[in-house]
Amino acid sequence: MFYATQTLAIVIDIQQRLVPAMLNSRTFVNKSCQMIKGLNILNIPVILTEQYPRGLGNTVADVQILSGEWVFEKTQFSALTPEVQTLISRKKPKNIIVLGCESHVCVLQTVLALREQNLNVYIPQECIASRTQENKNNGLQQMQAAGAIVSNIESILFQLLGDAKHPKFKEISKLIQ
Predict the structure, then answer these.
(1) What is the pLDDT of residues 126-137, one digit of tens each?
(2) CB 72 within 8 A of CB 95
(3) Which of 93, 99, 130, 133 has the most beta carbons within 10 angstroms of its beta carbon?
């Protein structure tokens, strides 16, 4: 099963100077914000990473406002920096929701590293971006081949609810509409 109490999210490199280069960047940011709002409603911890922020800027304001207390800088492509890995080890999640840039580089390398740790990885496909559709598709295919579950915002949020009797059902339903 996929329980909110056993889940955390990693938001990878949705940064000021990187986002404009992404295909359908505005939609990508809006959908990422929708997903993060849902995670917040369900009290799922959100980790942010920023790839070399001196060069690529910080996380875009819309995403930054919604996200939690953990922001980690990185230069490696995988988001599993020692600090992020320590947090994951401390929280002991079974499930990780991954969103961000770019599908075929940082997101892919993060997902592969998480799968090596036998964690269940969920990818809301609307919340993943690359510069080209081909690169996005290729990244998603590789993640799926590695055992990640490529899904969508609505499916993931409703899986986390599990039941229409969940106390947050109405709030999530309004978010999806």
Answers:
(1) 999 999 999 999
(2) no
(3) 99
